[in-house]
């Protein structure tokens, strides 16, 4: 489970643990002190923009648990900028964390997922931005569309071994990732920060609210049940009506 230190990732760790799973949380820094005590399972600090970080994440899960039934590729960040000014290093980093990390995690975990007794499962936390674009998010939108392609490919390759792969596609979720982009959105759209939530963030949602991290965790938990077994090679869209238009 990557990106376990915040937002959606933290909610998924808590939910899966509550459902009886043993979960390794992976994030840039392993939590320390009081924070570590609140985490329900082991954790690893690793930079998932590197091959070594993704390899270490899979190796640590196998060391802790001796098997791997599920990979959740969730770690990510956002960068808001017009394309002409888009920082090229930020582009590289976005592609590394949002697209290459899920690929590497799947590659390194593949043999273990094939051996999972109930059929291995791979879940990417993608986004409504895997299905639709927004201005000023070239790197994020490109990477999220790419991860949906990855999931489709994994589903086809994994099917003979009972592996499923899905891309959960939420609209805007109430997390630090959304809070951090408010200033950049205000600048890019030329409006005040106060107007960003109503006029930018909630605009694509037919239902005018944010999604809670626990709602995303509920969907990931459902995908692990036997009832979730038919979902593979597809987006699992939970976008408050965004892509209905
Ligand atoms: N918040 C939303 O509105 C929203 C909507 C759709 C999809 N998503 C996706 O959900 C996922 C989680 O987002 P969130 O909103 O919970 O964000 P968040 O900022 O709350 O958490 C992201 C976590 O990823 C970790 N991370 C970032 N770079 C990393 C790296 N190089 N190595 C290891 N860990 C790294 C961060 O440390 C952080 O703990 C992302 O993939 C995001 O694109 C978010």
Helix count, per DSSP? 9
Annotated CATH architecture: 3-Layer(aba) Sandwich
Question: Can you summarize the main beta sheet?
Answer: 4 strands, parallel
What Rg, in angstroms, do the CA atoms define?
17 Å
What is the 3D form?
A: globular
Beginning-to-end CA distance, first to last residue: 32 Å
* Strands, total number: 6
Secondary structural class? alpha/beta
Placed side by side, the strands forming the largest sheet appear as 3-4-5-6
The SSE order reads HEHEHEHEHEHHHHE
| % residues in beta strands | 5-15%
Q: Averaged pLDDT, please?
A: 96
Bound ligands: nicotinamide-adenine-dinucleotide
Low-pLDDT runs: none
CATH superfamily: NAD(P)-binding Rossmann-like Domain
By CATH reckoning, the class would read: Alpha Beta
Count of individual domains: 1
Core attributes:
245 residues; alpha/beta; Rossmann fold; two-stranded parallel sheet; 6 strands; globular; binds nicotinamide-adenine-dinucleotide
What do you see in this structure?
With 245 residues, the chain is α/β, with parallel strands linked by helices. The protein has a single domain (7-173, 211-237), classed as NAD(P)-binding Rossmann-like Domain (Rossmann fold). It is 47% helix and 11% strand. The chain has helices spanning 7-18, 33-38, 51-65, 88-115, 138-158, 176-180, 182-189, 193-201, 213-223, and strands at residues 25-27, 43-45, 70-73, 121-125, 164-170, 234-238. Helix 1 (7-18) crosses helix 9 (213-223), helix 4 (88-115) runs parallel beside helix 5 and helix 7 (182-189) crosses helix 8. It starts with 6 loop residues before the first helix and ends in a 7-residue tail after the last strand. 43% of the residues are buried. Bound molecules: nicotinamide-adenine-dinucleotide. Nicotinamide-adenine-dinucleotide is lined by residues 3, 5-9, 27-28, 47-49, 74-77, 97, 125, 127, 170, 172-173, 175-178. The site of nicotinamide-adenine-dinucleotide (NAD) has 25 residues, from helix 1 and helix 6.
């Amino acid at each position: 489970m990557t990106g376990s230190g915040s937002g959606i990732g933290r909610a998924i760790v808590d939910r899966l643990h509550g459902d009886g799973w043993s979960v390794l949380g992976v994030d840039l820094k392993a939590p320390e002190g009081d924070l570590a005590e609140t985490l329900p399972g082991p954790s690893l600090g690793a930079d998932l923009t590197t091959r070594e970080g993704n390899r270490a994440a899979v190796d640590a899960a196998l060391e802790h648990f001796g098997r791997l039934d599920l990979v959740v590729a969730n770690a990510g960040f956002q960068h808001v900028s017009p394309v002409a000014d888009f920082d090229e290093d930020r582009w590289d980093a976005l592609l590394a964390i949002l697209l290459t990390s899920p690929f590497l995690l799947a590659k390194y975990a593949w043999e273990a997922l094939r051996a999972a007794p109930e059929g291995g499962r791979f879940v990417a936390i993608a986004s409504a931005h895997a299905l639709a674009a927004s201005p000023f998010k070239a790197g994020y939108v490109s990477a999220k569309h790419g991860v949906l392609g990855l999931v489709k490919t994994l589903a086809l390759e994994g099917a003979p071994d009972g592996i499923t792969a899905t891309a959960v596609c939420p609209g805007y979720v109430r997390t630090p990732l959304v809070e951090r982009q408010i200033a950049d959105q205000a600048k890019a759209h030329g409006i005040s920060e106060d107007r960003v939530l109503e006029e930018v963030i909630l605009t694509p949602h037919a239902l005018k609210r944010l999604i809670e991290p626990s709602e995303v965790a509920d969907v990931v938990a459902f995908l692990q049940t036997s009832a979730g077994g038919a979902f593979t090679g597809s987006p699992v869209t939970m976008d408050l009506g965004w892509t209905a238009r």
